[in-house]
Amino acid sequence: MASIGAGTTHKVGMKKTTKVKKSGILKSGTSSKIKGGKGKANGGMGRRGSAPRLLPSELNHPSSLEAFLSLSPAQQKDRTRNELLQHCLGERATFHEGIAKPHTASTTQSRGQAAADLAILVKHLGPIVVLKQYGVLAEMEKTLLPLGMGAVFGNGPGKGIHPGGGMRKICSSASLASMDSESAMRSQEYPSTMSMASSVGTDSKRGKTTPANAREGALLFLRALCELELKSVEPYVVPLLAAALDECGSSSSSVRAAADDASEAIVSIANPLAVAMLIVPVMFEALHSPEWRVKSSALERLSQVAAAAPRETSKLMPKIIPTVTAQIWDTKPQVTKAANAALLTVCNTINNPDVKPAIPAVVHAISKPADTYKAVEELMATTFVATVDASTLSVLCPVLSRGLKEKNAIRKRACCVVIENMSRLVDSPNAVAPFGPLLVPELKKVVENVQFEDIRDVALSALQALTKALGHADIESAVASIMRAEAERAEEEQRRIEDALADEQRAEEEQRKKEEEERKQFREAMEAQRLLDKMAIEEEQKEKKKALLKKEQQKKSTKSSGGKCQGCNLKKCKKTCLFYSG
């Protein structure tokens, strides 16, 4: 018979149960986790998927909406500002839920529901009434832009690469409905409903003074407005794209997620005509931000713009390609990956069917210079039939210029062949003019320095074709024109540097004068204090001398301080007193 001891083990078989996935519909107030990649929300390059639509809580039923609309305009305004807006910004009305019910803390879900309630009011009352007359937009601007539009992306007064100037130019280039003086007047008429001095949950290092809950609520409201898909909302929402991108660098993960969703929603409803004037310039400014998450989000939005408005993006490629290429060499791998993805998406917007098959190889060569010749081989196998425009040249010329700088003469010859075939189909001199300084000097070096005669002949033929495409009669005139343009550009850059130095020297001189004035005032104050101290010491010494003199007189006098005799203790001495004077 087997014995059972302390070391005896038993194996018990268990049935495996399979979990059945239940299908259902999200109820109001529930959240869903949609997996779109391995990365976290804007922490890595993996997208977490599209966020679920924001659902209202107080105006989620037609009866509650009718009850609100039946109120007088003053009551609607009061409830919008003091209840819904405060809930959206993370503030709770004191007795809104009654005295008996305990005060509930603000959460992301409650702020999203309040934002959806405000969006429903915008849909039924109109954006002018809710956003302008009720002062909701002014409160959002104060929350997201406490220092103004020019201070976003770290470009505050005296800071950043473009100290406020870049964003001011962008703001002045378009009619911004949300940035007028009327909103500023309403922001003074309606004081902020939240505590601006609160430091709980703020990004103090980034100069953010508003609470994180308020900024998250404002971003959720922007997304709720975009989900309405109303054309009348676009002029108020699209100008706040810069604020949404700037919040992508917040230290709070919930604010980053809300900013990422808001910026995506804003770009999705933006008119294609706003791409060149507002959206792409804002993204260029965002790429100067010191926060890598802001750069990554801006590059993701640029990919979204390229997919949504390919024609408008294609026209801007001569500006987009150099700007995005510079981000490929960023120290953060997330920014590098986003730049590669954005570059590929943008380059696929070109209209040239001959070059499109070689786009992946060309983009790969831009990010990896060692594979430049593989891209040139792809272009060598291309038969150019369609017209070559500026967008196509902006993709090909950087790779061809790099290929002309290689040591291998055979590879230089391949680049020259591609340049010649490409130059014969350029649609206008204006299209190739920005790329002349990039190719003409390198072709001239190949013509003069390569020892093989056949390669020099091919380079000369390519140089002549490029010169003709530039609109010049001969090579010398083309080189002279390029040199003149380079000289003008150098002079302009020199003037800009001199102006910047002059501004810096002027600022230093003003600072020096200010410091000198402060030192002078300090010296005067110290001298005045020294004189006061001296007078106080002299006065104290005089008082001490008076006290000593009085004490000495009292010692020599027969009378005490009260006037009595020190011998008999009487005011009038007796005859028997030693100090009797008769």
Key descriptive features of the protein:
elongated; mainly alpha; 24 helices; 59% helix; 582 residues
Question: Overview of this structure, please?
Answer:
This protein is an all-alpha fold and 582 residues long. 59% of the residues lie in helices and 0% in strands. It has helices at 62-69, 73-88, 108-125, 127-133, 136-144, 165-172, 181-189, 212-227, 234-237, 241-246, 253-269, 274-286, 292-308, 310-315, 317-327, 333-347, 359-367, 372-380, 390-404, 409-423, 429-432, 436-449, 453-469, 475-556. Helix 17 packs across helix 19 (390-404) and helix 18 (372-380) crosses helix 19. It is elongated and about 145 Å long. The N and C termini lie far apart (140 Å). Residues 18-46, 157-164 and 174-202 have low confidence and may be disordered.
Structural class: mainly alpha
Distance between the amino and carboxyl termini: 140 Å
DSSP strand content: under 5%
Which shape, going by the Cα principal axes? elongated
Counted beta strands: 0
Helical content stands at: 55-70%
Give the helices and strands as they follow along the chain. Answer: HHHHHHHHHHHHHHHHHHHHHHHH
* Overall pLDDT: 79
Q: Strands, helices and their partners?
A:
Blueprint: H1 62-69, H2 73-88, H3 108-125, H4 127-133, H5 136-144, H6 165-172, H7 181-189, H8 212-227, H9 234-237, H10 241-246, H11 253-269, H12 274-286, H13 292-308, H14 310-315, H15 317-327, H16 333-347, H17 359-367, H18 372-380, H19 390-404, H20 409-423, H21 429-432, H22 436-449, H23 453-469, H24 475-556
Could you give a quick summary of the protein structure above?
Helices cover 59% and strands 0% of the residues. It has 24 helices and no strands.
